[in-house]
Amino acid sequence: MSAHIHTTNNRPGHATSSTSRRMRHPHDDAPDTAAQFARLVDLDEGPERELLKEELAEAWLPMAHRIAGRFGRRGEELDDLRQVAALGLVKAIDHYEPSRGAFESYAVPTITGEIKRHFRDRSWALRVPRRVQELRNRIRGAHRELSQLPGAGEPQIEEIAVHLGLTEDEVKEGMQALHSHSTLSLDAQLSSADDGFSLADALGDPDPAYDTVIDREAAKEGLAKLPERERTILYLRFFEDKTQQAIADQLDISQMHVSRLITRSCAKVRAQALGAEEQDLPRAA
């Protein structure tokens, strides 16, 4: 049976006798359909049974819509929630056993559970474990309760933790989930001014200087283990940007020797950074 059920004002007639008034259901949208459910139990699968289920769904749909309305301020369209509630109503009709009590006492938790499952499984923009989702709901309820106390200000993390019997870390984890229910588009405008900017404009670019810092830290130990002359040659070559010939003239050695020392020193530093063994290094002639 389809969950797309249209609301109708032709609900089953209400008895006008004094006896019927005394036995009226707790809500106006809870019709007396005990006779229809008793018939449904005795019917085999087929057109007649499907038609009766449709009639029952039409009769109880206002109650499903009322339950959906309780969740109307949680970021979901009310029409979508009503469709989810209608699906829960159909499930309740399919599995209801009249011998176990009134239909309403079975349908209400079934419909409510279907709506909560919808929020848990489909409406979160980020994947959040069920434990954290439940933690978030508890924290939100505690925040509301503490805020309503006489003279109360904004509840602090430690107050919420004491109120719920949780650790402060658990409260922080749940509060982070409060912001995970929906996400903001990178194209969303963060300013309404003419020179407004989007969230993407506020994001930084990768900084190549980070790689330089990492490389320098990795090379520190290897440089410290080099002989003084080799450290001097590397400093002159890479920090003062001198040519090999200029370094050779300054140290009174040949340019070829400078080249070999640079190659050997760089290999040592690289090997140290990568954790290579000393015996694997090339040796200068």
Descriptive overview:
The protein is mostly helical and 285 residues long. The chain folds into three domains: 22-122, Orthogonal Bundle (Rna Polymerase Sigma Factor, Chain: A), CATH 1.10.1740; 127-182, Orthogonal Bundle (Arc Repressor Mutant, subunit A), CATH 1.10.10; 209-280, Arc Repressor Mutant, subunit A (Orthogonal Bundle), CATH 1.10.10.10. Helix content is 58%, strand content 0%. The protein has twelve helices and no strands. It has helices at residues 18-22, 34-42, 47-69, 78-95, 103-122, 130-147, 157-164, 168-177, 209-224, 228-238, 244-251, 255-274. The chain is elongated.
Quick synopsis:
The protein has 285 residues and is mainly alpha-helical.
* CA distance, first residue to last residue: 88 Å
Mind telling me the CATH class of the largest domain? Mainly Alpha
- Judged by helices, strands and strand pairing, the structural class is mainly alpha
Main β-sheet description: none
Q: Please work out how many helical segments DSSP would assign.
A: 12
Using the 3D structure, state the CATH architecture of the largest domain.
Orthogonal Bundle
Rg over C-alpha atoms, rounded to the nearest angstrom:
37 Å
Describe the SSE topology.
Blueprint: H1 18-22, H2 34-42, H3 47-69, H4 78-95, H5 103-122, H6 130-147, H7 157-164, H8 168-177, H9 209-224, H10 228-238, H11 244-251, H12 255-274
Feature tags:
about 280 residues; mainly alpha; Rna Polymerase Sigma Factor, Chain: A; Arc Repressor Mutant, subunit A; 3 domains; DNA binding; sigma factor activity
